[in-house]
Structure of Uroporphyrinogen decarboxylase:
Amino acid sequence: MTEKTILRALRGEVLPTPPVWMMRQAGRYLPEYRATRAEAGDFLSLCYNSDLAAEVTLQPIRRYGFDAAILFADILLLPQALGVDLWFETGEGPRMTTVTTPAELAALKGKDDIHDTLGPIYETVRILSRELPKETTLIGFAGAPWTVATYMIAGRGTKDQGPAHALKAADRATFAGLIDLLTTSTIEYLSKQVEAGAEVIKIFDSWAGSLKGQDFEDFAVEPARRIITELKARFPGLPIIAFPREAGEGYIGFAKKTGADCVAIDNSVSAEWAAANVQKDGCVQGNLDPRHMVTGGQPLIDATREVVRAFSKGPHIFNLGHGITPDADPENVALMIETIRKS
Ligand SMILES: Cc1c2[nH]c(c1CCC(=O)O)Cc1[nH]c(c(CCC(=O)O)c1C)Cc1[nH]c(c(CCC(=O)O)c1C)Cc1[nH]c(c(C)c1CCC(=O)O)C2
């Protein structure tokens, strides 16, 4: 069997047509996702129901034939496994009990005590590795320590990650201790996903862009480097995608510094810029603006062709610059894929 297209791109091969998948491809824009989510009851129940989580992971593969499936779960399941209470407020997003003091940090579980909670997630991976079409790559993931910490410190999503920056300034030891616990437990979490059948790992650092200067090196680059180095020691050849979203100039050299095989690019930089500055070091993933999945038409076709063209001289995995939104039209996804595969 020839190697799967995504794995070939991750090893640096330049393919005539880039392989494609989409962040949040299993999500609320799909009627079949909404039906399965209703059957599960709510989002977290869906994440922990291995059969239904595998089902929603497979839905966009059946509908569109994407080259990769991403495990259906969430970056906030790890803090839950470490002992925080997590819930989702309808229409608002995640809420959790906060960790901001030495005592609250000390009360969290250890890195080896997360697997009872996360067992159903590993089972979802096992089901998927049996049921996915043979040409489809299975991607496992976790949040990066900084991004996960921003939610744990604030107890919710924040626009500027203010509470996490404040703790970093006021109590460096507690902040650094939380980052360290998240780094070591993420290594254990991702290792179990790989043992269960994940072929590629992606690390989501959605708020990397708010770390500046030395903070970016210490809390975006260094934790990613530690996670990637240890995973590659345990699983030689495992391909890893890093997503330091909105890192700007921080994208330059990120793959070299961390050992990532691929860097995912958001919409704050142009494909042209990323091709010149990031793709010169290896594979990149991205970066069609997800708004096109809502608006469609000729602008979608033109923008898709432009992303394909800009990255055509190096290894590239086509994706959006961020997750597809609930108001997207499923027809536009089909049009994007058709445009990629014809160009
Ligand atoms: C910050 C973050 C979270 N989760 C995630 C991130 C990092 C990437 C990013 O920036 O989007 C990552 C994530 N979340 C989800 C996945 C599964 C894989 C995928 O489809 O890409 C992944 C990789 C499912 C999800 N995670 C969530 C949904 C929507 C849940 C629903 O059905 O109501 C899905 C499909 C909920 C979630 N989960 C989170 C938030 C802030 C929200 C609410 C916002 C929203 O509603 O979109 C935390």
Notes: The domain at 71-264 is CATH 3.20.20.210 (TIM Barrel).
